[in-house]
Please model this.
Amino acid sequence: MANLPGGKNQARRTYGYIRPPKQEIVVVVNGASRSFDAQSMAYHRDFFRVINDALQSTAGGPSPIAFGEYDEDLISFNWTTSGSRAFNITFTATPIVVLDVIPNTDLENINVFLSYSSPTNLSVQVSAPFSGSVRYRAIYSPTYPIMVTRNVISSAFTYNAYAGYIDLVGINFFTASYTSFGSPPSQAWFTPYDINGNNGASVALVGSSSYGLTSSSGDISSAIVDRINFLVVA
Model:
């Protein structure tokens, strides 16, 4: 090598460089085509999540979870016996609705029942005036069990749920049957639905405190000709 005026610091070595070919990936998200170079992907959190879900579905990998329709919220009572409100979402069809009274110091032997529901709203009655809140849980799916997001509480909470109803004709007990989750449900709710106008306020319902693998049973204070809605979750 020839001597350079600046010494060895001016010596330069040249190495070969091969640029990887562009890898264009095209996906369709919400009806719109998007393309990007896989060699220079920008990892924006939300964009990557959407693209990644689409890629998995296209590549035959695990598809995103298909959540069922679900709503959960409170109805407030101020020394009244009835209350109603609109759902936070519009259901495809009339959902299964279950109820429970939020415990408080003014609560004494209050029976709660569903008096009306539609895809957009519901009405609830209690057996005596009280001040407090009733929580409703409303769910709709063509098939069960289904995973649902507890959207009002937080999208981080989910249920694997099965819902349905039992029509009773002059009996004072019920059995709710459901598809096995693989283990007994962790929670269950049972609610009279006064579809026949039989004054469900006079009915006290005792649900099962332990839930079987494929069914749960409960007792009612008197024989009724009406409906019991149920929701079991894992």
Summary: The chain has one helix and eleven strands. Residues 42-51, 55-59 have pLDDT under 50 and may be disordered. The chain has two domains: 22-64, 69-233. The helical segments are 45-58.
